[in-house]
Design a protein that fits this description.
444 residues; alpha/beta
Length: 444
């Protein structure tokens, strides 16, 4: 026969048992670690307002304690001063060690009750003076603001339990009970502190999430810009690899009686070019497959500075007054430099349209012996800028493009209220030391 089933009793050693939870709460209630009252985050000039308010409350509690003991219970002398200092000191201590302040306040309340015990008249309150509960309530609030809800519940429960036990066992004859009012006041203060603490923690989590979101948005924008640059440069490189392949195939027919070694070398060059072109097309296909319906991903010739006039005309048609100035000998550049310069000017003009409506824009291009200098500057806007749906990371993309070629890009406001974007790009990035472009950027 099977023994009758019994309801399992939680083991004190098991996580689900009640005793470990009570022991953990008891340890938390007697933990007197340093936990200062946090400052206000906004507005900054009121950061210390909570501390000032608590300090004012401590002074007011001292005055109320003296008034209550002397006027209502006719207690005078040294005990009055001692009780007042302990009452105010417990609140000050609670700003830095909330549980220590609460325990000291509870001990002070018991000492006050013992001191006035023989002076309680008909209808007077005990063990709390009429103002004693209000001078003790800030200590519960200070605990609730910084401790977990279970500790707040423990502090409120012990405070109410003290009042109930004192009234039950030692209540003077003719005194008035204050237990219902004490329970209501302490419970309300505990709930208020919990709500304020939850709001502060939620606000901190929100700020943290906003920072993470901004970082993730910037990282995603950077990756998207790099992917776009890769697609464009793959088109350029693929074009040149195709030309190399064709030239290697035609070269033997341009030489009379070419040697076998020359034919083999040219055949090897063409074979390597075709293989590299195949790999480039494969990678380019992967990049374009991420957004197959994106018109920007379709095959089309990449823009160059030769198309700058058309770009400027489009911007003028959108309502901006744009002037251009070209210094130096205008000449074709390497495809990567042409494309990067065009994109930087394009993005700078787009920013002018979005953020400086009605302004006057000057576009300057200077062809130097080794560098190409770009400058796009606008005056202060003449009307408010409408909300922009963009992510606000255009400068990030421009810096990425300039740094890819080993150039520099700077952007910042002008004293006149306008904005300026300048860039310096090397004419031939292949001349960079080490064969790689190092990114150099600076912020104004």
């Amino acid at each position: 026969m099977r023994a009758p089933s019994e309801t399992p009793v939680p083991d004190a050693r098991e996580p689900g048992g009640g005793r470990p939870a009570l022991r953990g709460l008891a340890r938390e209630m007697v933990t007197l670690e340093w936990d200062p009252l946090p400052r206000m985050s906004r507005p900054r000039w009121l950061a210390w307002l909570p501390h000032v308010a608590v300090g004012y409350g401590a002074v007011a509690s001292c005055a109320l304690t003296v008034s209550q003991l002397e006027d209502h219970y006719e207690v005078t002398g040294g005990p009055v001063v001692a009780m007042a200092l302990l009452t105010g000191g417990s609140i000050v201590l609670g700003m830095f060690r909330p549980l220590a302040g609460w325990w000291l306040g509870l001990l002070t309340a018991a000492m006050v009750a013992w001191t006035i015990y023989g002076n309680v008249g008909q209808g007077q309150s005990w063990p709390w003076t009429p103002a004693g509960s209000f001078t003790f309530a800030p200590l519960i609030l200070l605990v609730a603001l910084r401790k977990p809800p279970r500790v707040t519940v423990g502090a409120v429960g012990i405070s109410i339990l003290y009042s109930g036990l004192a009234e039950t066992a030692f209540r003077p004859q003719g005194s008035q009970t204050v237990l219902p009012g004490i329970a209501l006041l302490f419970g309300f203060v505990g709930v208020l502190g919990y709500a304020l603490r939850a709001t502060r923690l939620a606000r901190g989590k929100l700020v943290e999430q906003q920072v993470l979101t901004a970082e993730e948005r910037a990282r995603r924008t950077l990756l998207e810009e790099r992917s776009r640059i890769a697609r464009e440069l793959h088109d350029v490189v693929a074009h040149h690899m195709s030309v190399i392949s064709i030239q290697a195939q035609v070269a033997p027919h341009l030489v009379e009686n070419p040697s076998q070694e020359l034919k083999e070398n040219l055949a090897g060059i063409r074979e390597n070019a075709v293989e590299a072109l195949t790999e480039l097309r494969r990678v380019l296909g992967v990049l374009r497959s991420e957004q197959p319906d994106d018109p920007a991903a379709l095959q089309h010739p990449q823009p160059t500075l030769a198309e700058l006039d058309g770009l400027v005309d489009n911007v003028r048609g959108a309502g901006l007054h744009v002037t251009t100035e070209i210094a130096g000998v205008r000449r074709p550049l390497t495809p990567g430099v042409e494309l990067t310069a065009y994109r930087i000017v394009q993005e700078a003009l787009s920013n002018c349209l979005r953020h400086a409506p009605g302004s006057r824009v000057e576009v300057g291009i200077a062809y130097g012996p080794r560098d190409l200098h770009l400058c796009v500057a606008n005056t202060a806007p003449t009307r408010p800028a409408p909300p922009s749906p963009g992510a606000g990371h255009g400068l990030l993309g421009m810096r990425e493009r300039a740094g890819m070629l080993g150039g520099e890009l700077a952007a910042g406001p002008l004293p006149s209220g306008g904005y300026e974007v300048t860039a310096v790009l090397p004419m031939d990035p292949q001349d960079l030391p080490g064969g790689s472009a190092s990114e150099t950027t600076r912020d104004s």
